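Usage example:
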Amino acid sequence: MIDLILMQALLAAVPILLASLGEILMERSGVVNIGLEGLMLLGALSGPLFVDYLHYRLGVQLPDPLWPLAAFLAAALVGMAVGLVHGYISTYLAGDQIISGVAINLFAAGAVAYGIQAYWGVAGYKQVPDWAKADPLALAAFALALAGFMWYVLFRSRLGIVIRACGEDPESAFNIGVDVNRVRLLATVVGSSLAAIAGAYLSIAYLSVVTKEISAGRGFIALANVVFANWNPALAVAGAYIFGFFDALSYWLQTAGVARYEITRMIPYIATLLIVAGVIGRARPPRAVGKPFRRE
Amino acid sequence: MKIQTLSVLNIIAALALAFVIGAVLMWASGYDPASSYYSMLVTPLSDRVYLLSALAFSAPIVLTGLTFALGLKAGLFNIGAEGQVYMGALGAVIAAYFARSLAALPLAFAIGLALAVLWSAVPAVLKMWRGVNEVVSTIMMNWVAYWTVIMAVSTVFANPLQPEESVKTPEAARLTPLIPGTDFTVAVPVAYIVASLMYIFLKYSVWGYRISVSGLNPTAARSYGIKPERAVLAAFALGALTAGLAGVLQVVARPPSYSLMRNLANVYGIGFDGITAAMLGRGHPLGVVLASIFLGVMQEGARHMQIEAGTPFEFVRVVQGLIILLLAVQVLRRP
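Running the assembly step on the lines above writes:
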């Protein structure tokens, strides 16, 4: 029984880990993006919608394993597009990153509810067909490998020094010839696409359904995890697993009939509050995060 | 003065551009932008009943908009109004359950406001003592409120006669429409008066000054002998009062149901609309009122748009997200 929960925790940890990794990359470069929740929603919708469109409306035939891949690709592209907008606002336009992030969340909440209704003609709930589903374990492996890779890049490579310099001390980075805004924009594009992939994981691998509330606060739990992990991809794995554990525990208690489902559903949120309250203080964000860089 | 005009121009530009991008999205998804926008923006203004209904939609948005605007003044990003609205509404339902007479009305305000303040105390205390960022903590509290209230409404406070909703406010305790045949209740003037009071409070009171100074520069505040921690607590508590008031009024002063829907449909999203209103109103209490009326018109218009043009009403939130995104670009463009 316990090994089943531990397995479930891993699957529940994947979206939180992917979104956390995206946010760590962005914040390490100096851009904060609180639109993770919205990016997840957009990814969760755009993946299934894209393959549905290819399959049913355009009549494209693909070998079966390629369908989920196409869905993830579509979600990643949508995430990149949103990341481009957020990154551009946060860098070259020197806009307000928090407001832009909120706007992504508001826009996504509307766009996903609207998109489900406009495309499928149903109110807020659409099953993902079997041929489009992906194996969640494959994604878990991908997320773990990515965490290792990102840790290596950030802390053991030249590129990592450049990225972190942009987030810690953009002035000095600029003085040694780094194009700070370009690094930040690219980091935001890549990071945002990871959050959208996390969303696509929810709809096509984990829950097999698209709903207008599919992310259910996971984007914000990922934000909490970034602080918990002290902006370190390796620690983010541990954090995501803990948050995933409470998610899995909630579903397990629900199916076991231990408590009403409304109570079990609260568990991940209460756990997040407790964890965040317990670890903060020793966490230190990148010094220039959230501040636009402008050459005087 | 110049800043003010420029800022108004910015807002108009953001609105116009958002509607243009929205039109493209609408067209791409197979709907007619012209007739949709006509139903969304013109139809609500064409009829007295529709217009009063739009004002009724604006009332709770004003109150949650004040929550967020007040938070901004104190340097907070308080997005907990959503959950506090649920708790306020739950308070009104609890009152209706225990008091089946006029007494339910004062009781609704007492319990609803108390619950909302209690809900905001958690992120406030976590921020004070543990330095927890309020963005994450208020969202978590919103979700806990969501499931708490859904459970309460579907168990103890369920309506045995109508399974879709909670117990109803007793007839004696209802604040019925001031103009018969419309949704226009005392909630609308109350919301606008609260906004005016908030304006006076922020501009002329000592506490308003403390909150503003703490938000602008906590270090300077300290050297003036102001404790920024207390200003933050005050902003959380006052914000919870207005958000809780919105929730109470949605139950006791909103025809036709005078109850809380089991899926929270009549309170859902009000807190997030308040964020939009506060940003569109530039964080100014009276700007929040104007922005809320605009959002109220869009919300009333959304119903007509869905019926007349067939465009899903969720589209108004797409446009609102675009407006805020475009405003984000211009925030630092102030001269």
